[in-house]
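Re: weekly structure request thread

Next one in the queue (166 aa):
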Amino acid sequence: MLRLDWNLVLEIINMIVLYLLMKKFLIGPVTAIMEKRQETIEQQLSNAEDANKQALDLKEQYEIKLEKADETSKEIVNKGKQEAKKLEEQMLEDAKKQAERIIKEAEETVALERKKAVRDMESEIAGLAMAAAAKILGENGKESDNRDFYEQFLAKAGESNDTNSN
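Done, posted below.
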């Protein structure tokens, strides 16, 4: 049978006391440390999740801002192209007007030079005609006859000039 002796009882009491002492001084503090560590880990995980959510929110905001910036840059480029096209058209129009003005001035200058040349030639021809008429008639002719002869010559020269220019 089972015999109980005092050694066994003392060993059981020692074991119980050892268990209680270990529970109070070893297991209790270790458990408290483990619980604190668990809370710290849970807090860090929670903080990491919050930081991740904030990072995702910031990423979305940056993507939206980037899209807006892209749209704005496209608008600016389009405006620049339109302004450049308007400027090009304006410059072409100004150049065309200036060219027309230069051509018109040149035509006017040519017309004036032509009239001047015609007057100069008429004067020279009249002088030559007077000289020829004076030789033919001699120095004795009347002044009124010379004048009539000059007028006839100019009329005929003008008619031949008009037919040649047409």
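Residues 20 and 27 are 10 Å apart (CA to CA). The radius of gyration is 61 Å.
Next request, please.
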